[in-house]
Design brief:
The protein contains 12 helices and 14 strands. By secondary structure, the protein is α/β, with parallel strands linked by helices. A hairpin with a 2-residue loop joins strand 10 and strand 11. The longest helix has 19 residues.
Length: about 300
Amino acid sequence: MISKLIKNISEKNAPIVVGLDPMLDYIPENLQKQAFEEYGETLKGAAEAVLLFNKKIMDATADLIPAVKPQIAMYEQFGVEGLRAFKETVDYAHEKGIVVIGDVKRGDIGSTSKAYAVGHLGKVTVGSNTYAAFDEDIATVNPYLGTDGIKPFIDVCNECDKGIFVLVKTSNPSSGEFQDKEVDSKPLYEIVADKVNEWGALSMDGDYSNVGCVIGATYPEMGARLRKLMPKTYILVPGYGAQGGKAADLVHYFNDDGLGAIVNSSRGIIAAWKQEKYAKFGGDNFADASRQAVVDMIADINGALGK
């Protein structure tokens, strides 16, 4: 699967992913009204507004972006209807030829981990039939439970040509409470990186592994160090833009081949119409504002990379 993501990135010259993490206040009033007129101010109405919003953003940006990253919590808050919107978002992205990174941060052991892996990346057997439930291409995974929690995902990656991004050093301010603690004279995030290398060798797909990792844009010095420790690992980089990460800080997350990292922006893209920089578009043209924000992000990152 990582080779498919790399192909999309290379063809579009865009090492970015758009985080589809919609809150209702990101969605223009006219679009909410459209959904509420049909389904009322209900959970179904809210989920429909989210789905319409996502589709319009993908319609406006599909020719520019290699991937989207829906964060499942933003959908789960609307219950079963929200999960329906999540699934329909995944399917619509696939129709557009966009790779889907399901930001689900699953992490458990044994049959539970296997069920998560099957539900999000694999296929479940029902009698004589098999079904892909959510069917993302790649999922984010929490490594806190060790190999027992990761191996079932790797098995599904190998069976179904899928991928995972393992949390190594996250972008949030309190990540250091655990991730920076030293164990045997090494920070914990480096120990996790060593395990990512080990797991990655079990699912290679060309020059890179289907086992990628997550390293926040807000810790560039750590990112540069981890890049050297994991040369065959693709890095998903959250924290660009709204969280303070800058393009110039991200250069060392990439390898010399210009590959190796994909940078996420969520509200910086999907809520661009609410920013002063893109206010001229207005709520009615929010998708055009998102498109311009994508163009600007690609130029910013490629400029820092000297492309």
